[in-house]
Amino acid sequence: MIVADAGEHRILLFGAGLIGNSILEALSLRTPLAPQFYPFSWNGDHAIQLARIEHAATSASRMSIIWSAGRVGFNATTDEVAQELGVYRDVLRMSARLASRIDGVAFHLISSAGGLFEGQRHVTSDAIPRPRRAYGHLKLQQEIELAETNAFAARRVYRVSSAYGPLRPNIRAGLVATLLLNAARREVTHITGRMETLRDFVFSGDIGAYVADAVLARTSRDVTDVLASGRPCSLREVQAIVERVVGRRLHVTFARDADNAEDITFDGSVLPRRWDASDLRWNVSRIYREAVSAGVIARCATAQPSRILIE
Amino acid sequence: MSKVFLSTVTPVYSGAEYLHALVDAIERVSEELQASGKPVELIEAIFVDDGAIDDSPRILDELQRTRPWMRVLHLSRNFGQHTATAAGILHTSGDWVITLDEDLQHEPKHIAAMLRRAIDTESDIVYGASNQRVHRSWFRNFTSTATKAIVGWLAGETAIRRFTSFRLVRGSIARAASSVATHDTYLDVVLTWFTKRIESLPLPLVDIRSNNGERSGYSLPRLMQHARRMFIAAGIRPLRLAAMIGVLTLSFSVVLATVIVFLHYWRPEVILLRGWASLVVAIAFFGGLTSFLLGVALEYLSTVVLHILGKPTFFVVDRSKDALLRGAQ
Questions:
Q1: Which residues contact B242 (CB under 8 A, 6 or more apart)?
Q2: Which residues does residue B127 pair with via DSSP β-bridges, in sequence order?
Q3: Which of B71, B90, B318 is the closest to A196 by Cβ?
Q4: Pairwise CA distance, residues B107 & B264, whole Å
Q5: What radius of gyration do chain A's Cα atoms show?
Q6: B309 in A contact zone (CB under 8 Å)
Q7: What's the rounded Cα separation, in Å, for the pair B176 and A248?
Q8: Alpha-carbon distance B329 to B322, whole Å?
């Protein structure tokens, strides 16, 4: 958990994973920040942890709370989902209390487009979320509970499709990162999905920039955005891109009977007007070059798994 | 109910004059498919502005404004028809992708027939082949057919004769081929790396542009460039041919040397001029050896080039959705 002060604007960021980190980086580029890190464990005593955060956050004239935390993935069980939802509810309640004391508290929720629209292809703005698994129901429930909490000046929901981003040693690696790592250590990547399965990959840096702009803008509107690239991309294409970037063939196995193998794609019309998704090919190349030059590949090589479930 | 989705891809270079009619024709096909009650839907039409030299980009943007199913991609410069087509295909999500020219040479009304052909023949690709003279110029028709026939024979790929830019391709194969295609590969040859189930459907295709006396976008140098790319991507048969000629020449030189040695010892009187025979043997032997070794070395090189170009070791395809259309016929 990170509390960052941008002048009189206090920003509470829950979750320092791929997207959380990108949001923090984008905020740092846009405004001088004084971040403070607070421990927030999924298994710890949330009441004490949240009380400490609440106490630290009261003296602000404006506040934005960002929930980009997530412990579970596509294959989460009902119990795991229930635990995560419980923590989210605690944070939402704490945020509502803060909103009752401070004017202009905005809540930003990072949701999952893949979880909400699983199995739907060519999702348009008229599409209705129809989650198929516990993970999708969790994301929908989080959105519903935020919509039912009227304490906030603005409620913004970002439905993010399959995110990929820079390699970091302590962050769960997605498909691109896993393929790059396994290419480096010449290991087999086991992908739970079919090679022709379509997903919509979106760069975490683009998400971070978009959310950071929304956080810093003074808005009092409730908005739900789908942050996708609008370009369907097969897993085979991702494999080909990574092979071209690293200059060698990858060893990949696909699980044909995987229950997540159905396509999830988004029509360009569903994307926000000011959103501009960058190109997968150049981003993969950039991620690899940055990781190699910073020595991240070597540090990640022993820490990440070789099995990946496509979300 | 589950449906089969179709996407169209049209690279645009100088089609301002035809775009309104083309978009209307695609829209009509979409409506007809919807009205047919069959489980098939045209979900998107992707137009790739390949550094167009006329008013096409503005017209496409204008048309797109009122048609949510249309999508326009603007490439930063002219990359060529195959690259633009590959870029468009990589933006599709349909079960089948149809590629069309900008000038209505490939009328969208034939899409349903091509799809039917693909389902009936269990194919992955159906080319729209002309059942009449496409171009008014006999020279253009002849060179086009001859080039394909020669390259097809040299490359050992008979499907090359069927290549046209009016294609119906299984979506997964189209996207896989486009993802490995580079600026210097021939898209149709790359498609043959993924499937051999290729059919063609005779259709009344006419090059309206050339028949109206307009200049074709394909000049002779450009057509030769096409042939070169087709040839390079097609494979290693010419190299094997060179190696084979080398082996034959080498064998010939050995036989010749044997004959000469025989004559030298047993029938020396038939050799009227000394030195010539051994010179011919030496040239044939070393020429044949060089040709053979060069062929072998180039075959190695060709294997590496095809590897770099992205020729797949294997590709898995799911044709189970075809049953939806088979049942609906």
A1: B291, B294, B295, B298
A2: B167, B200
A3: B318
A4: 73
A5: 19
A6: no
A7: 18
A8: 11
* CB-based contact B44 A124, cutoff 8 Å: no
Residues of B in Cβ contact (< 8 Å) with A194? 316, 318
The DSSP output letter for B313 is S
Cβ neighbors of B146 (< 8 A, separation 6 or more) are none
pLDDT in tens, chain B (329 residues): 588 999 999 999 999 999 999 999 999 999 999 999 899 999 999 999 999 999 999 999 999 999 989 999 999 999 988 999 999 999 999 999 999 999 988 999 999 999 999 999 999 999 998 877 666 667 767 777 777 777 777 667 777 777 888 999 999 999 999 988 887 778 898 899 899 999 999 998 877 776 666 665 556 677 777 777 766 666 666 777 778 888 999 999 999 999 988 988 998 888 888 888 888 889 989 998 998 888 888 888 878 877 777 788 888 888 988 998 887 65
Distances (CA, A) of B31 to B25, B34, B35: 10, 5, 6
**A291 CB contacts (<8 Å, ≥6 apart)?**
A166, A167, A180, A297, A300
Tell me if chain B has a CB within 8 Å of the CB of A281: no
Provide the whole-model pTM.
Answer: 0.79
Nearest-angstrom CA–CA distance, B194 and B185: 14
In whole angstroms, how far apart are CA A18 and each of A10, A14, A143, A201, B16?
A: 21, 12, 20, 14, 45
Among residues A71, A286, A37, the alpha carbon closest in space to that of A172 is found at: A71
Q: How many CB atoms lie within 10 A of CB A102?
A: 17
Tell me whether residues B44 and A122 touch, CB distance under 8 A. yes
